[in-house]
Amino acid sequence: MDINWFPGHMAKTKREMKQNLKLVDAVIEIRDARIIRSSKNPEVDDICGSKPRIILLNKNDLSEDSVTKKWIKYLSNKNIKALAVNSNTGQGIKSIKPLLDELLKEKHDRMNNKGILGITDRVMVVGIPNVGKSSFINKMAKNSIAKTGDKPGVTRSKQWIKTKLGIELMDTPGILWPKLESQETQLHLAFTGAIKDEIMDIEELALSLLKDLCERYPKRLMDRYKLSELSEDPLVNMDNIARKRGAIVSGGKIDYNRVSVIILDEFRGGKLGPISLEDPLDFN
C-alpha cells in the first residue's frame, strides 16, 4: 500500500509554522491515543525546535488506559509534558494550564519580577488531520469557533482563538509529511481515519485491521461479533463477521464492501472497546 498524501498546501503550511513559531511561547501537539507513534508528524520536532511542548494524547476514551499511561511516562521530560485528554468530553483539559505554567515558569517569573501580571500565554496547536485539533480548540474556547469535521483536512488557515484560561491558541491546518516510510504507520493512520478512505482500498484496509485485531484483541472480536472461534486466516474471520451482520448479497455471496465499512466504523467508534495499537515497549 503506497500512499501519496502530501497536498501542495502542506509545504506552505510547514513554512508558515516555522515563521509563526516566534509568535508563541509554547506548542501543543495533539496525537491520537490509539496510535501515538504513528500520529506523530516526524517533522514537528524540527519545526518546534526547543519550544516548550505539551503532547496531548487525544481520544483517550478509545485507547487502553494502562498503555496510555506508559506513553505519558515515555514521552515526558523537562521540556515536554504528555497528557491524556478527551476533547469531546473535556476530560483532562483542566490539567493543561498547570502543565503550561510549569513549562513556562521561568518566563512567568521574569515577567512577574517586572511587575507584569495577568500574563497571557500564546500557544501554537499542531497535529496531523483528524486527531481532534478543532474539537480541542472548541472545548478550550467553550464554543464552536474552529471548524470541525470527521474528515481529515478541515482547517486550512491560521487563526487565533482566545480562551478564559490566560491562553491564546493559534490554530493551524493539520500538517502531514511527504512520505510514509513505514507500512505499519500507513495502516494505523488509515485505520483511524487520518488518511481519507476515498484514496484507500477499503476492503484491503479492513482486512489488515482485522488481522491486527485478531493478534492483539481476539476476545474483543469474538465478543463483539459473536464468533465461537477465530481462524488464522483473517479473510475467513471477515466472512464469518459478514454472515453474522447480514452483509450478504444475492446468491449468498459476501458483500465485502459492506462488511469492511462495518468493521472500520465500529473500530473508529469505539464499539470494540478501548484499543491501543501501539505500545512504547514495541519501539525500545
UniProtKB/TrEMBL annotation:
Its main location: cytoplasm. The keyword RNA-binding applies. Pfam families: MMR_HSR1 (PF01926). CDD domains: YlqF. GTP binds at N58, K59, N60, D61, N86, S87, N130, V131, G132, K133, S134, S135, G174. It comes from the Bacteria. It is found in: Cytoplasm. Residues 11-178 form the CP-type G domain. One of its GO terms (biological process) is translation. GO terms for molecular function: GTP binding; GTPase activity; RNA binding. PROSITE patterns: G_CP. GO terms for cellular component: cytoplasm. Keywords: Cytoplasm, GTP-binding, Hydrolase, Nucleotide-binding, RNA-binding. Required for a late step of 50S ribosomal subunit assembly. Has GTPase activity. Belongs to the TRAFAC class YlqF/YawG GTPase family. MTG1 subfamily. PANTHER family: MITOCHONDRIAL RIBOSOME-ASSOCIATED GTPASE 1. This is Ribosome biogenesis GTPase A. The gene is rbgA.
